[in-house]
Amino acid sequence: MNRKLTQTVIMGVCCMLFLGACSSLSSESRERLSFNDGWLFSLADDSLAARPEFVDSGWRKLNLPHDWAIEGDFSQDNPSGTGGGALPGGVGWYRKTFVAENKDKGKHFRIEFDGVYMNSEVFINGTCLGKRPYGYISFSYDLTPYLKWGEKNVIAVRVDNAEQPNSRWYSGCGIYRNVWLLKTGDVCVAEWGTYVTTAKVDGQGASLNLVTTLENTGKENADVTVRSVLKDAEGKEVAQVESPANVVAEKSVKIAQKLQVTSPQLWDVEHPYLYSLVTEVMEGGQCVDRYITPVGIRTFSFDATKGFVLNGKPTKINGVCMHHDLGCLGAAVNVRAMERQLQMLKEMGCNGIRCSHNPPAPEWLDLCDRMGFIVMDEAFDMWRKKKTAYDYSLYFNEWHERDLHDFILRDRNHPSVFMWSIGNEVLEQWSDAQADTLSLEEANLILNFGHSADMLAKEGEVSVNSLLTKKLADFVKALDPTRPVTAGCNEPNPANHLFRSEALDIIGYNYHNVNIPDVPRNFPGKPFIITESNSALMTRGYYRMPSDEMFIWPERWDKPFYDATFACSSYDNCHAPWGNTHEENLLLTKKNDFISGQYVWTGFDYIGEPTPYGWPARSSYFGIIDLAGFPKDVYYLYQSEWSNKQVLHLFPHWNWTAGQDVDMWCYYNQADEVELFVNGKSQGVKAKDENHLHVVWRVKYEPGSVKVVARKDGKVVGEKEIRTAGEPKKIRLTPDRNTLNADGKDLSFVTVEIVDAEGNLCPLADNLVHFEVEGNLFIAGVDNGSQTSMERFKDNKRKAFNGKCLVVLQNAGKAGAARLKAVAEGLEDAVVEIVSE
Ligand code: GAL
User: Fold this and answer.
1) Nearest C-alpha to atom 5 of ligand 1 is from which residue?
2) 600 CA to centre of ligand 1 in angstroms
């Protein structure tokens, strides 16, 4: 099933890329080609590297996407600090040579970057095309005027991530997202040039509004026809419309059209049905451009009393926040790695993702469209006020309009995107902050809506920060009036400058559960969402007892919290002081209809921000799933609440000291009661009540077995047994997929477990496992989910952590069988075969 989905996504992407090329109608049609392969890289600065004649023969060959930081060693001295993951930064250069073939003469070439972290500067044949500071934005440059036809052209990219910290989490370094070469004719659909919205869905069907921006980069005016064809998921045409357009030379024009769809299939989180809009530009009977836009037909609203309503049905947003790193693969985009994260979340019952706190990779949103997630798409983590020394605040004044514009245009056709967030916990929110003042020059730059000096002088009355909020929200609305604007705020007071602006359509709180009951009174008529919740802390496989004692860390930032274990308890009894337990928030959200839902901080652990610890901790404890992708116990709490799957999860393990008190927890659903047995002896029958989503037994440990039995209507509906594990004896390998696509990108995530002679997981094993690969696979990364491991992510060995580690295998571009062998001192080897085809 996994593989099928990957293929569908890849096919979808390919169709979008190559449909132009497939069109038999014209040689002028667009081609969008991957520009990822065959780059040279050097991790050093050299001002001469922009020049075409620069000798780069000693540079390293690689294919993009690439993240040089993930290849490095952890060090306390790395400038990112532990907040940024303690991995290296620096300045790197990339160069690629390509031939602009004579047969393409007359076409327009653009180079498109989905994201470069950060401060990129792009050159062609020595000429600078531009700089782009923001590391999460997609951008492109016109290459046409600089191309040498029939000859070699050199693209050089300087990436500067030397000045750190510039992020509160791991950013990655380099050209970490895909790069494309786009070829078009003179008249074509402009970049992100379609805009499809659902005007209405009723008994007559759905009415869609289309706006197509055409551009004419040629020297002559063009009379064209825009043909917009809507196709269903099988590729069958369901509606079409044609309009004439005159596109003046070197200008662009917008064409508005309407489409009526009878009996539309609606997009929702369970059935994310996708149509595609094929926009064809016809000139003189020929198709000169063909552009595909995914379309999901759905209606939605955020309501102050009913919460989020999708296609007329109140639907709780059961979401998680995610940062962009892919664990041991770092920030380097890989569609399968992203898909795996989303699949695990979907299996848990999650139906929403907050792309925190920055625009995601385009493929991430493609996956969310296809898999059915309600996305809160977020622009920034800061505005003018900095959170770290060298962050985006340095560029905000100059760049925020451009970045926000490009972000909205790029993402506004994704059916999965339901709201825009203009910021996360921006420091401009604080009501008790000194009134901000702006110089006229700065005011003109950032506010730019005709405020006179007099108005700005009345700072106390008209808060600059409210004006800025309104400016940003209005800016977004002008580009997409169909979605609400929100922001993640951690000042719940209505005097918060963002709230005061009245520009936010949805009130969004990060944390502050105690203030949530007051929301309807404080913000009458306003919809509400928990933009971020919990910040609970857990280390997979570590349990601190007694489990009814809360560990709320860090106590104070000026008093670093150190515990010899550098671990956080996996009972739901540990969280940051501004947060709460997972269970508390599930109950709160469930019991209050006016809460549209929540985005839990976070779905997966991410690199950086190892609250509550500092060095040597270097990745986060917040995830429901650890950095390697192994679920923590609380995963099953969510699954029991959010999904229809039957859940019976008992924890912790059963390897303790004889006679010790052990708290055994159980998450379950679809049963009336559960009974625990220690070596066959009943420890009592328990059942959840409306204020508890788990049950617990305190039992005396004795080696052997602990078992839970679930019953419904008196009948046994499930059983789970955990046995005391003996000494580590063997390695067990479990690939998530045994068959890969031979595309050079596909991945198999292999779980490595240390087990005893009977196959029980050894819950504390930390054996060092070596990996040998034969055949057409290579090791893309290794991990074990430990937040304090100093082992490299790029290696052929890894210690197990609490019994498990992970090796990620990547297809090397050819079909055939390959073998992974895992070897550890004193243990029986394990071998697994993986086929690429
Ligand atoms: C929030 C913040 C997140 C993350 C989290 C950790 O306040 O928005 O980015 O830092 O705290 O608890």
Assistant:
1) 535
2) 11
* CB neighbour burial string for 345-354, b if at least 16 within 10 angstroms, e if fewer: beebbbbbbb
Q: What are phi and psi of 86, to 5 degrees?
A: 60, 25
Closest by CA position to 339, among listed 638, 10, 622: 10
419's tokens: 């709201």
Do 7-17+187-300 and 654-723 fold alike per CATH? yes
Q: Confirm or reject: Cβ of 393 under 6 Å from ligand 1.
A: no
Q: Which residues in 506-536 are b (16+ Cβ under 10 Å) and which e?
A: bbbbbbbbeebeebeeebeebbbbbbbbbbb
577 prior amide bond cis, ω within 30: no
- The SS3 call for residue 443 is helix
Q: For 730-836, which CATH superfamily applies?
A: Immunoglobulins (2.60.40.10)
The pLDDT score that the predictor gives to residue 450 is 54
pLDDT confidence of residue 456: 54
Which pLDDT tens digit goes with each residue over 299-327? 999 999 999 999 999 999 999 999 999 99
Low-confidence ranges of the chain (pLDDT < 70): 1-28, 433-435, 437-440, 445, 448-462, 560-563
For residue 382, give the nearest of 429, 418, 419, 417 by alpha carbon.
429
Provide the CATH topology of domain 317-432+463-536+577-641.
TIM Barrel (3.20.20)
Atom of ligand 1 nearest to the CA of 424: 8
Nearest to 15 by CA among 202, 245, 291: 291
Q: Which two tokens stand for residue 675?
A: 């009974």
> How far apart, in whole angstroms, are the C-alpha atoms of residue 815 and residue 836?
5
pLDDT value of residue 557: 72
Task: State the catalytic residue, choosing from 191, 339, 363, 425.
Answer: 425
Please give the CATH topology (third level) of the domain spanning 654-723.
Immunoglobulin-like (2.60.40)
Is 532 an active-site residue? yes
Q: Residue 463 has what pLDDT?
A: 77
Instruction: Output the pLDDT for position 8.
Output: 41
CATH of domain 7-17+187-300: 2.60.40.10
The H or E element spanning position 601 is strand 595-601
| E-strand stretches of 84-186 | 90-99, 108-113, 120-124, 127-132, 139-142, 152-161, 179-184
pLDDT at 449: 53
Q: Is residue 288 within 8 Å of 515, Cβ to Cβ?
A: no
pLDDT at site 464 = 83
The CA R_g of the chain, rounded to the nearest whole Å, is 28
Active site residue 425: yes
Catalytic residue among 532, 609, 675, 753: 532
Distance CA 824, CA 822 (A): 7
Distance CA 26, CA 287 (A): 6
Asked if residues 807 and 629 have their Cβ atoms less than 8 Å apart, the reply is no
Is 510 a pocket residue for ligand 1 (Cβ < 6 Å)? Answer: yes
Amino acid letter for position 482: T
Q: What tokens does 709 get?
A: 């039995």
Write the residue with the smallest CA distance to atom 3 of ligand 1: 601
Domain range 31-184, CATH architecture: Sandwich (2.60)
Q: What residue spans define the domains of the chain?
A: 7-17+187-300, 31-184, 317-432+463-536+577-641, 654-723, 730-836
For the four alpha carbons of 76, 82, 87 and 93, in that order, the dihedral sign comes to negative
Give me the DSSP letters along 352-400.
EEEETTS---HHHHHHHHHHT-EEEEE--S-SSS-SSTTSTHHHHHHHH
In three-state secondary structure terms, 241 is: strand
